[in-house]
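Bench log, entry 3. Co-assembly request; chain sequences pasted below exactly as received.
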Amino acid sequence: MLDKIGIAKRIAREIKDGYYVNLGIGIPTLVANYIPQGMNVVLQSENGLLGMGPFPFEGEEDPDLINAGKQTITTVPGSAFFDSAMSFGMIRSRKVDLTILGAMEVADNGDIANWKIPGKMVKGMGGAMDLVASAKNIIVAMQHVNKANESKLLTKCTLPLTGVKCVKKIVTELAVLDVTAQGFKLLERAPGISVEQIKNATEGRLIIEGDIPEMKIE
Amino acid sequence: MLDKIGIAKRIAREIKDGYYVNLGIGIPTLVANYIPQGMNVVLQSENGLLGMGPFPFEGEEDPDLINAGKQTITTVPGSAFFDSAMSFGMIRSRKVDLTILGAMEVADNGDIANWKIPGKMVKGMGGAMDLVASAKNIIVAMQHVNKANESKLLTKCTLPLTGVKCVKKIVTELAVLDVTAQGFKLLERAPGISVEQIKNATEGRLIIEGDIPEMKIE
Amino acid sequence: MNKVVASAEEAIKDINDNATLMLGGFGLCGIPENTIAALVKKGVKGLTCISNNAGVDDFGIGLMLKTRQVKKMISSYVGENAEFERQLLSGELEVELIPQGTLATRCLASGYGMPAIFTPAGVGTEVAEGKETRKFMVDGVEKEFLMEMAFDSDFAIVKAWKADTHGNLVFRETARNFNPMMAMAGKITIAEVEEIVEAGQLDPDHIHTPGIYVHRVFKGEKYEKRIEQRTVRKK
Amino acid sequence: MNKVVASAEEAIKDINDNATLMLGGFGLCGIPENTIAALVKKGVKGLTCISNNAGVDDFGIGLMLKTRQVKKMISSYVGENAEFERQLLSGELEVELIPQGTLATRCLASGYGMPAIFTPAGVGTEVAEGKETRKFMVDGVEKEFLMEMAFDSDFAIVKAWKADTHGNLVFRETARNFNPMMAMAGKITIAEVEEIVEAGQLDPDHIHTPGIYVHRVFKGEKYEKRIEQRTVRKK
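Structure output for the full assembly:
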């Protein structure tokens, strides 16, 4: 089974040289730490920055320089600041190659729910609806099951949707799966996890073809 | 009768302190020369400049710095450059207080034609259609009659329109007129011009109320 | 073309009860903190606030929530505020949540004189309820969009880094965020800044918001610039 | 993230016959003169060019007209070109004239992922023929708008003052004009510049076009920067 770091490491392997990437809050933020050295990747922060760098050294925090999670950050050489209209402009016009975000539920047609739980205080969708509606490639980092051991990979989302038919790939503590026209296609098992365990944890249509390899993460 | 300079001088009197003004090509460009000293007026050039100054001194022309007429110009302190989208953005959102432009014909409902003569080479409308469709206040500088002595202030334009119901005021070699719901309302006569002459030169509905003063231009 | 006013108080002199305000900033970054303080002091009520966030309990728009000056918030994310949550659950506060890009683009539309825009954000979700949708071809594939209307606001209140006396504005780093679009969208736009320079002191190629969009500028008395999530690494 | 290519020839290597190109510039100001020279040398034909103007007889897009490489021009003003007029009148050249603000905003729409925009420009004129119109309330008054579609283009070719190796662009004075919107709107965007600097050498607050929009950058071999209307005053 993967921990959060493991999920982040596995997702980092999906990033290709030359990519512009938007990382959501939570596990996706961790992905930045595992992008291979020497790979040219530019991180977009939807509050108005291309070229996000690591957290600042203690004492060097700049209140004018934050990411979309409101954390103090730094920039890397070649960065650019812009306003929120241009930021979502480049998101809508599909200039961002890869969007990585978290989810509460994903359906086997690619629907995603990650912003609202009826009856609980709703904080808002932030930029998530814009991102999922426009991104050409969306990878979701999520838990396969909830605390009651109920699947979060469903035939149909039970929670209010963030976007429809948009998720392309899912990385959970148990597996890597593609979202296809036929449903979730199992690609890799987490270390020590069996196909049976993944089957049991997946409520939506699950496609298992041939031998499913165990994923490799160093 | 007014010459071009006279028309420009008379229009300059319509400019108020604090105005942002867009000046079209031809007579309107001349208006800049007669804005009273000390009045705070900012000239917008729709190719991307607020704060247009006079022509450069000989030898100081900058090919990167032109106005919408493609003439070399200068800037004044407090100027700003921007792209064409923002330029027409501020025009559409009615931030420009006054637009002054030329016309071939104006109708008594405020329609204007100034871009196309059927059968002649059509050069294009440039920014004129955007300006007339959006400006909150449009003053037209034009000749009252054509070379055949036919009126250009009409009941209905004969040439293809640039915009509809948009002209607010007209300054010609003969008169100053407002465009009202009832037609052209005569406000002032040019020096030496009689009401009768203006009547004869105006094909569209003309409203003459009371004594029409002769305009004052120094 | 002097847009400079002496103080926040003077800048907001005609903001009255029930006004609709846009307030720039993302989280607590680039927010007009001096104007907010003046609005709290003035005590205007029944405000509709268009702002990406709602501040925290004791800073930003949170201060106006505490004094019950806000009738309605239009935001994309309002998470970090307990008083906000209390008022929302008790029905004292009306909240409209909209996608962040939609918020930004509805401001842009207003400043660019476009009455409505099309965005795919929210298609197939509750955000689309009651809204007109329309399909367009995008890269050869039919895609559905929502029509969203430009925002109308009585006042836009923004925070810039520097201004010149003509009201030309320059922003700094990610404190830019929503400020430029809101500056373009206000019927009256008030900009508070850290420094005012003479006309001609800003490079005209570097101006983010031309002064034509800005009606009043004042220098903020002091800037706390509170950090919401201080994240650092060891040297 | 190195976007630098060695030459104009390399930058245009995959521009083939019948491509749709956007070309930046206003008159002869801020035009991609080195790329145009390379396109003339390469001799690609059947081009559709979206550009505010069409150059003059012996400079700018005029050079591509002379060699009969252009099938169609989409412009707002094409006045200063005798060869253009000849080809237009003889039917060799197709021309679509559109309002300047519509041209700019249709480029912006493309770069901002908006499939269509509403503008009042051209309402009630022949520009509106065959187009969908729609009324919206503006400042309490009903006003009619045209729906205009975002532009699709295979290549956008722009001229900037400086670029860094990441493709971030900075423009100078009114040579900015249409270049930033076109840079955002190309499926492939090629920027020719007067100077290329290392990543980190441009102030990130001063960048007009972020590198994400730019695919190839090269330093123009030489810039004539011809002046169309030299107007001066005596010292």
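Chain C touches chain B through 22 residues (CB under 8 Å). The longest strand of chain C covers residues 153-164.
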